[in-house]
Amino acid sequence: MKIILLGAPGAGKGTQAEVISERLQIPTISTGNIIREALKTGTEMGLKAKSFMDAGQLVPDDVVIGIIKERLAKDDCQNGFILDGFPRTIPQAEALDNMGVVIDKVIDIEVKDETIINRMSGRRVCEKCGASYHLEHKKPSVDGVCDKCAGTLVQRKDDHPDTVKARLEVYHKETEPLKDYYSKQGKLAIVEGQSEIEETTSLILAAIEA
Ligand code: AMP
Asked: 172 Cβ partners below 8 Å, 6+ apart?
């Protein structure tokens, strides 16, 4: 299964990708996580992406398309994958099509902007493995510590309210048109994001199996 998770930043794509990845035994590919990793290790790509990311803007298409090409060529992608955070623009979707990658399903998780702004202020991520938590909805067993790798949980710079507003604007302008793009290909399923993570997961799994 080759799946794309669409949705605004903070709609819960990362959390859902982790769960579905485990259920279907296919890897999640998150361009955001790959870029953050590159930033941590100080690669040229990471440094190039930093200013865009910190401002809540999109990293240029050629950079992320390069990242995806390299990642999809790896062996673990042979049986399928979940794309979380890619594509985010029409040229990125076209690049994927041009690579000959045939996507089975595109799941769009819909959540209202005001809900997202509230949610993002409570989001915390593991600085070591990137797993995501929430102060109210998905608490770690021990405050501030990752359940998976015992890394420290931090708030991402781009989860601050002003940056979140900028990211939502970018989402509506650049990413939302992808709904139409994939609807025309007959691949789009829309799922209303629920307040309970498990409920959204059930809706997504049902949409994947439909
Ligand atoms: P995410 O963790 O998916 O919310 O991504 C965090 C940030 O990484 C975004 O706000 C962008 O600056 C950058 N980024 C991640 N994926 C992409 C993409 N497909 N296209 C452009 N920028 C991206």
From this structure: none
**Calpha distance 180→178 (Å, rounded):** 5
Q: pLDDT tier at 69 (50, 70, 90 boundaries)?
A: very high
**In the structure, how many helices (H) and strands (E) does the chain have?**
9, 8
Which atom of ligand 1 is found nearest the CA of 56?
Answer: 10
pLDDT of residue 75: 94
First to last CA, the chain: 13
Statement: residue 45 has pLDDT above 90: no
What is the reported pTM?
A: 0.87
pLDDT per position as a tens digit, 108-140: 999 999 999 888 888 899 999 989 899 988 899
d(CA 107, CA 128): 28
Q: In angstroms, rounded to a whole number, what is the distance separating the alpha carbons of residues 132 and 129?
A: 9
Let me know: does 30 contact 37? Beta carbons within 8 Å: no
Residue nearest to ligand 1 atom 1, measured at CA: 32
CB 85 less than 6 A from any atom of ligand 1: yes
Atom of ligand 1 at shortest range from CA of 13: 3
- Quote the ligand 1 centre to 52 CA distance (angstroms): 9
**Rounded CA gap, 84 and 87, in Å?**
8
